[in-house]
UniProtKB/TrEMBL annotation:
Its cofactor is [4Fe-4S] cluster. It comes from Chlorobium limicola. Gene3D superfamilies: Aldolase class I, Dinitrogenase iron-molybdenum cofactor biosynthesis domain. Pathway: Cofactor biosynthesis; Fe-Mo cofactor biosynthesis. Belongs to the radical SAM superfamily. NifB family. It comes from the Bacteria. The keyword Mitochondrion does not apply. Involved in the biosynthesis of the iron-molybdenum cofactor (FeMo-co or M-cluster) found in the dinitrogenase enzyme of the nitrogenase complex in nitrogen-fixing microorganisms. NifB catalyzes the crucial step of radical SAM-dependent carbide insertion that occurs concomitant with the insertion of a 9th sulfur and the rearrangement/coupling of two [4Fe-4S] clusters into a [8Fe-9S-C] cluster, the precursor to the M-cluster. Pfam families: Nitro_FeMo-Co, Radical_SAM. Keywords: 4Fe-4S, Iron, Iron-sulfur, Lyase, Metal-binding, Nitrogen fixation, S-adenosyl-L-methionine. SMART domains: Elp3. This is FeMo cofactor biosynthesis protein NifB.
Amino acid sequence: MTLNIKNHPCFNDSSRHTFGRIHLPVAPKCNIQCNYCSRKFDCMNENRPGVTSKVLSPRQALYYLQQAMEISPNIAVVGIAGPGDPFANPDETMETLRLVREHYPEMLLCVATNGLDLMPWIDELAELQVSHVTITINAIDPEVGSEIYAWVRHKKKMYRDIEAAKLLIGNQLEALKRLKEVGVTAKVNSIIIPGINDGHVIEVARKVSELGADILNCLPYYQTTETLFENIEEPSPVVVAEIQKATSEFLPQMKHCARCRADAAGIIGEINSEEMMLKLAEAASLPKNPSEHRPYIAVSSIEGALINQHLGEADRFLIYGMDGNSGICSLVDSRPAPLPGGGEQRWEALARILADCRALLVNGAGDSPTKVLNKQGIEVLVMEGMIEDAVHCVFTGQDVKHLMRGSQIHACKTSCTGTGGGCG
C-alpha cells in the first residue's frame, strides 16, 4: 500500500484548500502542564489545541469517522491531537489508529504530541504507517523549559522545575531522532511566548534540524485566561514573521497553522459545521462500542436520589433506561453487587451483571475496577449530583463536566470509607 503523503494539509500548503482532516478526540488525559494551557473551556469560536466538545472511545471514534466521511468525503487525514496527549492515553490512541487503518487502509494517519511518552510506541506507529507525527518542542534549554512547564508526570512520578524540563526535553529529542530512523515525517511545533522563549526558538530550530525534523511550525502563543501566562501579551505578527524568517535558515516553515481544536473536522481554518458537531454528539451518546446493544446506565447511590456512593461500597446498582420516544429516563431495575473481595474477579463478575449497561455512574472508583469495566465496554464516570440529571446527560451525549468529581483525596482519587479490600 502506498500512501500519498502530499495530501496532508498541515504539512503541505498546496493541499490545504483541497483535502480535509479530522481529529478524533480520544485522548483526554495529559502528562504535562504547560503554563499557557487550559483545557476546561469549550467554545465553538475558540480554535486552539486542548478544546473539544466531546471525548470518544476508539469505537465511537470509528463510528464518527464513518459518518464524517459521508459529510466531508475530501477528508484525507485522520489525526489524534488530544484534548490531552495521545500517549498519556496510549491504549485509546493506538486502538483508534489500528481501527482506522483496518477500515480505511489508504487514509493518512498522524498524531500530535508533547513527546514525553512517545518513544515506546514509535515502532508500532511505523508499522501502522502513521506517516506524520508532530512534536511540540518549546525549548531545548532546561532553564527556559522550566519557565514553560509547571510539572511533568512520567511513569507515575511527578517532576517539577529544571528536573521536569530536562526529562521532557530529553525524551522529545530522543523520540524525534527515532521517528526519522523509522522513516516517519516529523513536524516540530514551537510556541512563541514573549519574554519566555521568543529569543530561544532559533536554537530549537537548529537542534531539531540536526536531528532530521522535516518542517517547523513557529506559532504564536495564544493568550488564555486562568493560566499562569494569562497576562502575557501575544506576539505581534511582525515578531512571528521575523522568527519564521530566522528559523527558515534551518527548516522549511509551516505558516498556515490554524491552531486546530482536538475535534477539528474539514478544511483547515473552517469552523466545524453544525452537521458535523451533531454527528460528534451522536457518537458520544452511543455505547463505547456502538455495535453493541447497551440500553441502560447503572448508578451507585446510597438512597436512590444522588450519586453519592463509592463503587467499592455499593451493595446494589440502580439501572436506568430512556424511552426513545419521550426521552424520559426512569428506573427499570435494581441489581445486587458481587460480594467484596476477590480482586479483579469481583469486577469481572460486576461486568457480567452490568453487561447491558453502557456506563456506570459512581461517586468514586479505584483504577483496577475502572480498567476491568472499561475493557468490557462499560464506561466508569466518577461524578456527583442528582441521578436523573446525570443519567439524562449521559444518555443524550451532553457535557457532564459540571458533574464530574474534582477532588482527589485517596490513591483511588476519591474519598472512601471502605477497607480497600478488593477495590484497588
